[in-house]
Design goal:
The chain has 180 residues and is mainly alpha-helical. It has helices at 2-12, 27-38, 43-51, 54-57, 62-69, 71-80, 88-101, 104-128, 140-154, 165-177. It has one domain (2-177): Hypothetical protein af1432. The protein contains ten helices and no strands. α2 (27-38) packs across α8 and α6 crosses α8. The radius of gyration is 16 Å and the shape is globular.
Length: 180
């Protein structure tokens, strides 16, 4: 099923590019899914890693995911999916709440996604400096609030043993990115 999810996501995101890049969009879901796989998550979470942006960014909907990949994958993807009819602040607050109260699988998907985005941002910051923030609808201060809030919420309800190593990588990168 993992290969099917990768193929489905590749097809769904065909022609899309990463923000501020000529890289195919699919590189992002691939990195997210691979990080989840390296951390030892099961098939449903890895599939959700490949599929996490399909509902938000393509013509497919959550029912397509449910039909093709089952209830577990659809539940994880749906928990991660933002309602684009809401304001940026409402969408981000919802994600923070989901990270705080969601299952460990949902938490892992969201943090893996945010970590990959922040790693991409690091490359842009190295190249463009602070001007990079001008390319965001919500600039530095709002991005700082959002990422720091995810960090504050991500371990809620988990035992220390359940916290994957990449949560600490994300925490450290948030601190590095927003400490000035």
């Amino acid at each position: 099923m993992i290969e099917k999810a990768k193929s489905f996501a590749t097809k769904a995101h065909a022609g899309q590019k990463r923000k501020k890049s000529d890289a195919d969009y699919i590189v992002h879901p691939i990195r997210v899914a691979e990080r989840l796989e390296r951390a030892g998550y099961g098939e449903a979470v890895i599939c959700a890693g490949y599929l996490h942006d399909v509902v938000e960014d393509t013509s497919y909907n959550i029912e397509d995911i449910r039909r093709e990949f089952g209830e577990d994958v659809a539940r994880i993807v749906q928990a991660h999916t933002e309602d684009k009819t809401k304001s940026w602040k409402e969408r981000k607050q919802h994600t923070i709440d989901v990270v705080r109260n969601g299952s460990k699988e949902v938490k892992a998907l969201i943090v893996a996604d945010k970590l990959d985005n922040l790693e991409s941002l690091q490359a842009d910051l190295a190249e463009e400096g602070k001007a990079v923030w001008n390319g965001f609808n919500a600039g530095y201060e709002k991005q700082k609030w959002y990422n720091e809030s995810v960090v504050e919420s991500m371990k809620h309800g988990l035992t220390e043993k359940e916290v994957p190593g990449f949560f600490y990588v994300y925490r450290d990168l948030v601190q590095k990115t927003f400490s000035h």
